[in-house]
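Entry 14. Structure prediction run on the chain below.
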Amino acid sequence: QVQVVESGGRPVQAGDSLRLSCTASARTVTTYAMAWFRQAPGKEREFVAAITWTGGSRDYADSVKGRFTIARESAKNTVSLQMNDLKPEDTAVYYCAADSVTYGTTVSDWDYWGQGTQVSVSS
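Output returned:
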């Protein structure tokens, strides 16, 4: 059973930076594709960022490109999401996802999900 656990979410102000972590087993972090999604109140879960199995490619939603960075930290068994210049519209529950077979920007592309961590950005 693949388990991923998110951490790092908290209330911040617009313009602040925040780093989210997704912790999993060493095998998961090093051999699975990993992604971050987010879900704001009343909205559908949306893609934020993803990193391929080898880490050779990273993809971002247009809304976060240039501000967010996804990175694999194998020594810590984590995949991080560095978020800079946060905006109120970034407020959401952030979810980590993993998959060993598929890679994409839709929820159905990912098999394993964490419980989420809340990020709240005030103006």
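The mean pLDDT is 95.
Filed with the rest of this week's runs.
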